[in-house]
Structure formats: C-alpha cells, structure tokens
Backbone:
C-alpha cells in the first residue's frame, strides 16, 4: 500500500511537491507521468493534497478515483457516492444509474462539480485526482465508456475553479486509444 495523505510528515520530497503544487495551481490539467513504482501516487497523496489543504485563503476539495473496469461507475461514485446504510443492490443500482446519466449526457460532470462547489466557500477549488489512468486501457471493457470518461474529464478540467490531475504511466502507442494514453493537452509533470 502506498503512502496516504495522513503520512505527509514522513514523505520528505519537498522540491517535487512544490513543483507539482505550482503546476496544479496554474494549470487546469496536470499529468503526473512516471514508471510504475516511482512514487507518483505517494507524491499526490502525501505531497500534493496536504500542501493544497494547507493553502491559506483557498479551500481545496479533493475528489479521487481509479477508473477500474467501469470508469463511468467510478466517476459517478466519486461525485455521488451511494447513501450509507443501504444494501449492496441499492448501492450498485445507484452507481449504475449515475453511470448511465453520465454516459447518455443527462448529467454532465461540470454540472456535478458545480453542485459540489456550490456547497463550499466561493474561494474553494476542486482537484480531481484520477489515479491509475492506465486502467482505462488495461481494465476497462467498453471502448465507448473510455472515450466518454476521457471527454468528461477533459471537459471538467476546462471548468472554473476545477483542476484535474492524472497519475499515469507511459503506455504503449499500440493501445486502442493512443492519443488518450496521457492527454496531450495536459501539462506533464515528470
């Protein structure tokens, strides 16, 4: 298991953290790229997030997800988790309905993010952390869902007060979606 936000005092990579924080503050999209096991997730969890939360004058709301085998379900769950105290069937029903709404455009990710930000102070910012971006190509089954997920993330990153950070490894250009392996429009922090 990698480091978590509460392990920040043990982390000790101040220079890379400062660079990543500066990138996130000034760019709507940041791709953190590096080899597997090089500490990208730890840099985000124990470096970036605690540094953002320590920022004076700005409240940072973090939404973190891993795409997994069903990226739209993961996205729906990150922004609208199932209510507590309901059974597994109702939880899955809630997540599947959320994914269907995102899939067919009945609900947009900007709309969801806006509803979250509306509950926070006006100075608040949202940072969306997509960990294990490569799961879109190694685990996700439906190509149309992968394309929709990427489109929603890119659209969200253009919204006011929202910053997206993708933690990914370099992926072979032989993937079915080579241009989406790490979106070219994103500023790469290596």
Residues:
């Amino acid at each position: 298991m990698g480091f978590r936000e509460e392990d920040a005092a043990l982390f000790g990579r101040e220079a890379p953290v400062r660079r990543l924080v500066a990138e996130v503050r000034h760019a709507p999209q940041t791709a953190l790229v590096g080899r597997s096991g090089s500490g990208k997730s730890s840099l985000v969890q124990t470096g970036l997030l605690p540094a953002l939360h320590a920022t004076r004058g700005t409240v940072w709301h973090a939404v973190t997800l891993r795409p997994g085998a069903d990226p739209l379900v993961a996205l729906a769950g990150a922004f609208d988790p199932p209510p507590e105290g309901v059974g597994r069937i109702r939880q899955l029903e809630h997540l599947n309905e959320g994914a269907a709404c995102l899939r067919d455009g009945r609900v947009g990710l900007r709309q969801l993010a806006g509803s979250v930000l509306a509950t926070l102070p006006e100075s608040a910012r949202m940072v969306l952390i997509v960990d294990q971006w490569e799961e879109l190509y190694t685990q996700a089954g439906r190509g149309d869902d992968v394309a929709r997920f990427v489109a929603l993330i890119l659209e969200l990153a253009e919204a006011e007060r929202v910053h997206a950070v993708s933690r990914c490894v370099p992926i072979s250009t032989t993937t079915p979606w080579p241009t989406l392996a790490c979106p070219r429009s994103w500023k790469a922090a290596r």
User: Anything to note?
Assistant: Residues 172-181, 183-190 have pLDDT under 50 and may be disordered. Helices lie at 8-11, 14-26, 40-53, 71-79, 88-104, 109-117, 135-138, 143-157. The first strand starts at residue 29 and ends at 33.
